[in-house]
Write a sequence for this structure.
């Protein structure tokens, strides 16, 4: 499944939870159904993280094609990152296999598997791997925000809330809930 299609499927799961919350608590009495809302925040940030992982892996063949076509400075930093994991002899063996793109995807996956692409800085690093340098300005425009910092802050508020939910759970003295 393509990265964006997978993201849409994951976000539709969040929409189902929101619809369930609205149906069950249409007037939303205080603290009723909050766990569903917390699940939506956690799942939506997870969908974002998963999307950027999938996107990097999806771009591996495109970047390799650039390199194979003679561009010895392909866009992005993925080739550079892969070089640390892939000695020349192993790379040459992979090229001779029937589906070298799958082998290179596995290597790219090994590079990013332990990383999270949730916080704005982490998202930027993921996108630089595949040569996307200007993500925040289009997002800022789409959201109608003042500047790129506001776009990063918009994303960060959900990430911060997600971290709070999954690492500390719901607490009555939760200052974020009171905002």
């Amino acid at each position: 499944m393509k990265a964006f299609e997978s993201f849409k499927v994951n976000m539709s799961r969040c929409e189902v939870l929101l619809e369930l919350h609205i149906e069950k608590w249409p007037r939303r009495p205080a603290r009723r159904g909050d766990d569903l809302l917390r699940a939506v925040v956690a799942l939506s940030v997870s969908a974002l993280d998963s999307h950027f992982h999938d996107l990097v892996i999806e771009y591996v063949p495109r970047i390799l094609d650039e390199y194979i076509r003679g561009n010895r400075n392909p866009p992005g930093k993925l080739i550079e990152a892969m070089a640390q994991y892939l000695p020349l002899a192993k790379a040459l063996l992979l090229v001779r296999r029937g589906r070298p793109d799958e082998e290179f995807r596995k290597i790219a996956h090994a590079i990013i598997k332990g990383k999270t692409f949730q916080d704005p800085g982490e998202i930027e690093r993921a996108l630089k791997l595949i040569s996307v340098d200007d993500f925040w300005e289009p997002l800022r425009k789409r959201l109608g925000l003042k500047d790129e910092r506001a776009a990063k802050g918009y994303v960060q508020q959900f990430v911060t809330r997600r971290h709070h939910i999954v690492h500390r759970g719901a607490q009555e003295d939760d200052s974020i809930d009171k905002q």
The radius of gyration is 20 Å. The chain has eight helices and no strands. Helices lie at 3-24, 34-68, 78-83, 88-96, 100-112, 120-129, 136-143, 148-168. The first helix runs from residue 3 to 24.
